[in-house]
Amino acid sequence: MKEFTLITGASSGIGLEIARYMASKNHDVILVARRRTNLEKLQKEIKDRYQTDVKVYDRDLSNPAVAVELFNEIRNEGINVSMLVNNAGFGDYGEFKDLPMDRSLDMISVNISSLVALSRLFLEDAVTLNRGRILNVASILSFFPFPNYAVYAATKAFVLSFSESLRAELSETGISVSALCPGPTDTEFTTEEMLKSNSYKGFKQMDAAEVARQGVDGMMKGKDIIIPGLMNKIITQTPRFTPRSITRRVNKYMSGQKK
């Protein structure tokens, strides 16, 4: 039976590049995102270039019930998902009090609730087979609070903590759980406003294809936490040796807050 890798948020950015890279390694893929036109374009590109099997599902994961329906639909079609890449997510830049509440709640639903739902459903089959791989896309902001990204950073902190906890629970099985924690990456996520802020000063955005390559390679090797880029690795270690009060001050400056 064919084995597929399910990739959410596959229509652009890191998710798109993960799909390309997985296909280049002869893995059949299931692509999930909101924009069907983009999915079908990528589907054709991959099929023409790699001759791998590609299935597409246009779904909005801001409703966790949709994630449940999606996985059950895939399962009912007799499709075997052997690897899960939870990449779908988004973030808003700005002070929490100024951002629309609906956007913040949707962010929590996509970045956390749907990720948890898909992970739970994936494990129902993976535990029975005693094998499988999960790659959850977090962020370097998983490691510390960050003003102007309050909700986003908090959701990514959850993703990292959840991934590490789940990995420990499954340590005696053949299932691995990895967390990809990229820093600034050249994707649609990065806006001009973000680029002008202190948080991006001194940082060179990484190429999404390189981030995807390191993420997939790390997942296949069973790594726990994957942080692409030397500077990003260094930054994520600083909270271990710095008082939280100082970390907050530094992050406040980097976020552009002057008060």
Automatic annotation (TrEMBL):
The keyword Oxidoreductase applies. One of its GO terms (molecular function) is oxidoreductase activity. Keywords: Oxidoreductase. PROSITE patterns: ADH_SHORT. Pfam families: adh_short. Gene3D superfamilies: NAD(P)-binding Rossmann-like Domain. GO terms for cellular component: membrane. PANTHER family: DEHYDROGENASE/REDUCTASE SDR FAMILY MEMBER 7B, SHORT-CHAIN DEHYDROGENASE-RELATED. Belongs to the short-chain dehydrogenases/reductases (SDR) family. This is SDR family oxidoreductase. It comes from Fulvivirga sedimenti.
